[in-house]
Amino acid sequence: MSTLDALVAVITAGVHDIQAAAAARGASYPGTDAPPSAAGDALQADLAARAAPVVAAAWQLVATLQHPQSYLLDLSFLAHLSSCLAVAEAAYVPDVLREAGEKGLHVREIAAVRNVDAGKLERILRYLASRHVFEEVSPEVFRNNRVSVALCTDKPVEEMVKSPIDRWDGTNGVAALVSLNGADNQRGAAWLAEHLLDPATGHSQEPNEAAWQRAMRTRLTTFEWMEQPAHALHLRKFGNAMRATTSADERAAATRGFAWGALPAGARVVDVGGGVGNLTMALAREHPHLRYVVQDRHAVAQEAEQLWQARMPGFVENGTVTLQGHDFFAEQPVKDADVFVVRYVTHNWADKYATQILARLRAAAQPRTKLVVIDVVADYMSRDGGAAADIPGAAKPQAPAPLLPYPDSATSWTYGMDICMMTLTNCQERTLGHFVELLKGAGWKLDRVCRFESPLPQQLICSPL
What we know:
By secondary structure, the chain is an alpha/beta fold. Helix content is 48%, strand content 11%.
């Protein structure tokens, strides 16, 4: 069977399988023209694993059918697609069209809300419509489709105009994340090639010497820059955007993977770099027999006190949870931890600094102490999983050739996020082999991997060496 025939067969069989699975639930798989619904969203989420090989095959079919030059040129323009999404979000287009309803709205009226040039916005929305974000229902008249609705904040446009900085508060964070990637993060991407080829910066692991700093002409780290009073909008956006990348996995982490329930009553769990404690909230709800310490910067720990009082009153007051200001590069003050948890911490730091964080935990660990690293694991795009594939739980089922071996990774945002982290702060996502070496260098041994379906992060269960 030729490559084309094989790809078409995967797509055809996969689509029939998805349609049958939806029909068995008394539903139809929603298209981009379907009205948004919680039931449709749940159906797509439930069938995501079945859809991944189909999506991967569709991308590969495009790469196979297009002339290489056309394919490369199309890829080279994708940065503009990201920036156009950011423009649509900044102009409140999704919510303006939400209020306009099914009939849609002429681009002149859409543009007037934020005083955007109508002709330029028209071209931007048409580019997005060509990629199935929005729909042009008649010349210069646009309306939402199921994809663009996902960018809505569901807040009154009048309120958004009055207070732009508040528009992402209380949302799922998707609009904020799209804006962050398409506007703020793109600034460094344009300088990446020049930055990497510069001998003075190309090999740096310093968080304030990435391509983003070159673009912004600053020596501040991204986070230091956002914390400046003049950049309050960016800081608020970032905080809201993180909900879109982390909120989905909190209950999964508390109920699956590491055997939290098997820990004895009173066992101490330390959430290192845990922010205001969102993960610990999920853990404490499911496993109130444990004691928890949430560690982050002193200012964050103070902010967390009010949040815990509002969301989970009594847990801090009765000693189940302790909120502790701590710099994870300094000596770890908790010496009797049963479990250290680092969730989305290692990907924020280059190896030089991630090793320091993990080594501090190793120095404070007891022989019984476990380390649970919850983070993205980037799959190799080869069929050879490397030596780390022999670790319990590490192996993943592979798709048959000619598909790439791991369709769920090929169609996820893992690799794009990896380059984004490189551009912003010289940090990264890591392969399993890379994690093994990183952990070993800090005095930890990777015992097993608890696998979760994409886009949830994986859990690496470690013991002291």
